[in-house]
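Incident log, support desk, overnight shift.

02:14 A customer reports that sequence design results differ from what the structure should imply. Their input is reproduced verbatim below. On-call engineer (initials T.W.) acknowledged and began investigating.
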């Protein structure tokens, strides 16, 4: 839930600041790119922190080396966040992150179905997690589509 809250609040705050030219004028596309980058850096940090063991358990058992999968997905999130901050690369980062979000969604399904815990708290229920994932994919696709115009 924290990544969703970060995305929402930072996007709104940056859009207001950009509208008033603080520190300079920028539009929604920049606000969304920066907010998504912050969100992906936040989620990537979990791949090596206290949540790492919980993330490893989230990886569906059909994938070997779940520890390696967690490390690789963390690196991909960091690379995607960097890409979002570079305007010429941002559309491709947005598309790549959309595909990434779809690729890692089975881990969220597994966590919800198995009632796994993240830092002792139950994983987000599947319906709520799906809705949040739709918001994330919509935001990353918006970066892609707007950036290709």
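02:41 Re-run completed on a clean worker. Output:
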């Amino acid at each position: 839930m924290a990544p969703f809250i970060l995305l929402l609040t930072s996007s709104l705050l940056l859009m207001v600041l950009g509208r008033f030219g603080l520190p300079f004028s920028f539009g929604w596309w920049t606000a969304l790119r920066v907010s998504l980058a912050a969100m992906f850096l936040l989620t990537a940090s979990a791949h090596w922190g206290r949540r790492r063991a919980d993330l490893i358990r989230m990886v569906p058992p059909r994938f070997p080396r779940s520890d390696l999968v967690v490390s690789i997905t963390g690196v991909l999130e960091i690379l995607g966040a960097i890409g979002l901050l570079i305007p010429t690369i941002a559309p491709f980062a947005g598309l790549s992150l959309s595909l990434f979000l779809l690729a890692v969604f089975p881990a969220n399904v597994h966590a919800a179905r198995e009632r796994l815990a993240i830092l002792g708290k139950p994983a987000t229920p599947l319906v709520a997690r799906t809705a949040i994932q739709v918001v994330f994919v919509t935001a990353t696709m918006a970066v892609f589509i707007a950036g290709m115009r």
